[in-house]
Amino acid sequence: MSAAQPQVGMVMGSQSDWATLRHGAETLAQLDVPHEVRIVSAHRTPQRLVEYATGARARGLRVIIAGAGGAAHLPGMLAALTPLPVFGVPVESHALKGMDSLLSIVQMPAGVPVGTLAIGKAGAINAALLAAAVLALTDERIATALDAWRERQTAAVALVPVDEGNATQP
Amino acid sequence: MSAAQPQVGMVMGSQSDWATLRHGAETLAQLDVPHEVRIVSAHRTPQRLVEYATGARARGLRVIIAGAGGAAHLPGMLAALTPLPVFGVPVESHALKGMDSLLSIVQMPAGVPVGTLAIGKAGAINAALLAAAVLALTDERIATALDAWRERQTAAVALVPVDEGNATQP
Amino acid sequence: MSAAQPQVGMVMGSQSDWATLRHGAETLAQLDVPHEVRIVSAHRTPQRLVEYATGARARGLRVIIAGAGGAAHLPGMLAALTPLPVFGVPVESHALKGMDSLLSIVQMPAGVPVGTLAIGKAGAINAALLAAAVLALTDERIATALDAWRERQTAAVALVPVDEGNATQP
Amino acid sequence: MSAAQPQVGMVMGSQSDWATLRHGAETLAQLDVPHEVRIVSAHRTPQRLVEYATGARARGLRVIIAGAGGAAHLPGMLAALTPLPVFGVPVESHALKGMDSLLSIVQMPAGVPVGTLAIGKAGAINAALLAAAVLALTDERIATALDAWRERQTAAVALVPVDEGNATQP
Amino acid sequence: MSAAQPQVGMVMGSQSDWATLRHGAETLAQLDVPHEVRIVSAHRTPQRLVEYATGARARGLRVIIAGAGGAAHLPGMLAALTPLPVFGVPVESHALKGMDSLLSIVQMPAGVPVGTLAIGKAGAINAALLAAAVLALTDERIATALDAWRERQTAAVALVPVDEGNATQP
Amino acid sequence: MSAAQPQVGMVMGSQSDWATLRHGAETLAQLDVPHEVRIVSAHRTPQRLVEYATGARARGLRVIIAGAGGAAHLPGMLAALTPLPVFGVPVESHALKGMDSLLSIVQMPAGVPVGTLAIGKAGAINAALLAAAVLALTDERIATALDAWRERQTAAVALVPVDEGNATQP
Amino acid sequence: MSAAQPQVGMVMGSQSDWATLRHGAETLAQLDVPHEVRIVSAHRTPQRLVEYATGARARGLRVIIAGAGGAAHLPGMLAALTPLPVFGVPVESHALKGMDSLLSIVQMPAGVPVGTLAIGKAGAINAALLAAAVLALTDERIATALDAWRERQTAAVALVPVDEGNATQP
Amino acid sequence: MSAAQPQVGMVMGSQSDWATLRHGAETLAQLDVPHEVRIVSAHRTPQRLVEYATGARARGLRVIIAGAGGAAHLPGMLAALTPLPVFGVPVESHALKGMDSLLSIVQMPAGVPVGTLAIGKAGAINAALLAAAVLALTDERIATALDAWRERQTAAVALVPVDEGNATQP
């Protein structure tokens, strides 16, 4: 978490979501995007939710990343309470494997958008990249870091797959 | 809507949900359960949501019925903000036919329950019956009305089906 | 299980459901709600089902919690046979992960309601909390216990997530 | 419905299911299988369900066909209460298109079988054919009728499709 | 497998299905129902499929139980080729957990029925019980065995669940 | 249907599938690919299925397109009985909208492939295009026709959408 | 479409998607956000896709909104080819009602994000609002327009539902 | 990988897909079909995708096999850029078990076909067999090898299942 004024607020519904969201936080750190990380439970701490969302813009945040699982109301309720762009990360749930999380986040009614990413770790990383892409529109430093990140990613794709020790696969 | 002090607060996310929820209101009226009906949008009127939920118990409400569709956050957010029992009605959505509404309402995390009914009209009627069953525990008049309602329902089931004009069926 | 006259009857379809339902029983115990726990299989002991349901109100029960998996008929059949409020807990099934249990419980036709909770452990805990919320309407002691439980839950949510030993996550 | 002693009992959860089940009754009639048709609602007439199922074998029934929709408990509860073979027809439900009906019927736990057919009209016809196939094992007349029915069916399949008036198709 | 003339033919699509179907074979053995067990792959041994199905009735078989996974065509193709009652067991598949198996078996078009049981082990046991119920219609010995099996099953349901060593549950 | 020796055999499970498959036949005609069209029901005409599939290569067919709905066994059974490439078209079913058709066709076990296209009309057209692409590998005339078809398709995509009379959309 | 330098590029896979996307274009117009509208088919005009995406940033675009249905590859491929933020709108498909569109858009692998909105019209409107929220971070005029839009939306929610002519509802 | 001029190009979206696709490569090797194996990520290496697809026919490739997971755009984008037949293998994804991969590959719009195989290892093997079947149309050596492969497969199916050490099964 950067010491600079956070530009991205990453919130999650519970401690258990951190195992997913931390991959997003690490990506923000790699891109040197100042950010903060908080637990805000829509259901267990609704007042904290209201305070976090309604104060976010004034506190200087520019993008909110919210992850939650199951009946995941956190991203949508944040989006209802702040004009800032909100990106949602469906955390994989136990029984339904995140399909409930995904639908609870992405199927917002017209009027209150949540830009939703993939279920789980990929979604957390991509929420960070999307937040960086938004900030990069007016922050040359982040734009440069993001372009470099994408170039490294492309360069890292080998041309031919290699056999690995654990080659068994269903 | 009864003139007496409402015991059931029926809320819905938008005007369009009324076509579903009204079947529940009619059932409450049949059972002579005092109730009120309100539109409270979790996403478009989040402050109204907070006020409605936090004031419900003090205003004398005893049960809340909440219906919403899509990423349906209304029942769960009400349940987060009031200790009263909350019953949720998943309204049938356009594309996903209420599966999104159902999962968004029923898959609440441990700690904040929403008693969820079926998708659509059946769920609205059943939310009313369940609310009446709760009130009937300590209200002899409602208990009697509910018992009679159930007896009439049983008596109304014919023994043999009858052919109807529109017999085509897929 | 309290020694007092049980107010909540918790039933399940088989011994294997106890691993899920016991979390609900523990929650009832935490709230000091008098309850009993029974195995009642709709399919293997249908006569026991009829006897349990038809005698429940007269025996002093006020709420029934029923958990079952797969083609889960127990909650709905109880609701058909007693005017008491019935709350259903879909137990996670092996192949379909509880989606079959959920739909079998929640999609009740108009006329016979089952207030359905989430699949699995969360649903069991929430069924207990919802039963307590119903009883709390007219039982000051349970109301106080439930309010305290909810306050402790809110207070227990940390502001910032902590890294844990097993940080790997898919 | 034949005047002879019914060998197949066809039951359905409500009048509205008749639009589906009647196709099965017509098939039984085509095969000259003596049968009766009844409405038995597991949820609205549970006592009728118990009486119908427990008396079926003694009354001379040999196969039961049961159709229901949504949280369809009728086939499974009949199977719990009679040793006769029970075949289930998932009636197409409004919101979930019979997926809830199908899972509620087919996912029975070990110990109480329901032989489940397809959702809707095809399932109703096939339940009749399957009941006839069971009776045909020891009834030469039905065996002959069923063989002829199957031969006619095979013979009726044209070799080349023909264009029809309403050729538009999505 | 009984030495007597087999009355039930149990077939499966591959060796790997035996882990599921064997539970059905064990149930047939418990009920002393003469049966045979074969591997018949609709896709890898289509000629064996044709031979098995077209010769089944003449060989004295009275019921066929067929289990397969994924795009499970075995039960339906058998039903297309024999007038005997066919009961299908959807074997749990790797990726889709048997939902593909279930739909491939149950959704047969009008004209060719497959009585479908639950996904996996429960379905295999229930296919055996359903086959026995069919045979019991005209075989007093099997009828008695089946009634006893069902009574033992009912009697084996404890009234109260017991805590077990491995009490953790998701 | 071309008068030349058919190279593509298009088969479907019933007359009702023609409304879908005809779009594929029209595409084959546009590309001037000699083809034949037949109804072959895996379930109602299994012997016709065996004859068609086992004789296909000797008769000079080079690709088979097979469309069916519900528990769609036709494509897979053809693929079991001929070494020719088989392409499957899942026809949209009534209740489950072709999801059953799709899984019944695509989830073939290792050893017997069916190249599966999209549900419905798009799949029928694409099966024709894929068959043409296969033939085009060694048929210059078809290759030229296919390239031209693809170029026309690309050229036909307007740069800017136009408003249409029926602009309402859900 | 504004005459000013477009800041938002709205693209769709085909003319038929315009019935959905136009609601997003109208929302952008209401907020006075300069934008352009184009048809870019990933599958039928892949070169146009490459050109549009690779030139977008240099042409002054700041956000891309992309809508497509079925196997919807347009949003993801655009995101692969431009560092600009891409928001995806799953267009409702015929058979699978947009579930295929949704999963094809939202389940992007780590490294290439698409912020995904709801299926259909609501998603199109919300993509426009999210794009506006991004631009509003550094454009006071758009920020003011967006705040006003949200306030009007909140103010437009009536407190009590009204009966309407077409009150029937499933 | 054969030293001869490759006729089949097998590509996959990432190194992790190799655990699935290698089963297809092994099958091609068993049939002695000259092939090459490459990693081509539609999202991380879009330019490599364009080059691979547009150059494939000129380089002498005749069939392309493409495997990818999640929002799997690789097969469809290849099919958009080459007239060669493209066969798609949905790789099993973590959360949604390959249902997302399947729908992203199979639900292509009319005009650009991808012949889709089963999710996972079975699909990889079958893509190889289908590619061989296409080549076998004009390559006697491959036709002979494929026929032999299929005969060995049929011969390898035992008539009776055998008990195995690990007989437990859910």
Automatic annotation (TrEMBL), chains A, B, C, D, E, F, G, H:
It is an enzyme of class 5 (isomerase). Pathway: Purine metabolism; IMP biosynthesis via de novo pathway; 5-amino-1-(5-phospho-D-ribosyl)imidazole-4-carboxylate from 5-amino-1-(5-phospho-D-ribosyl)imidazole (N5-CAIR route): step 2/2. One of its GO terms (molecular function) is 5-(carboxyamino)imidazole ribonucleotide mutase activity. Keywords: Isomerase, Lyase, Purine biosynthesis. Its EC number is 5.4.99.18. SMART domains: AIRC. It comes from the Bacteria. It catalyses: 5-carboxyamino-1-(5-phospho-D-ribosyl)imidazole + H(+) = 5-amino-1-(5-phospho-D-ribosyl)imidazole-4-carboxylate. Residues 6-157 form the PurE domain. GO terms for biological process: 'de novo' IMP biosynthetic process. Substrate binds at S14, D17, R44. HAMAP family: PurE_classI. Belongs to the AIR carboxylase family. Class I subfamily. Catalyzes the conversion of N5-carboxyaminoimidazole ribonucleotide (N5-CAIR) to 4-carboxy-5-aminoimidazole ribonucleotide (CAIR). PANTHER family: PHOSPHORIBOSYLAMINOIMIDAZOLE CARBOXYLASE, PHOSPHORIBOSYLAMINOIMIDAZOLE CARBOXYLASE CATALYTIC SUBUNIT. This is N5-carboxyaminoimidazole ribonucleotide mutase. The gene is purE.
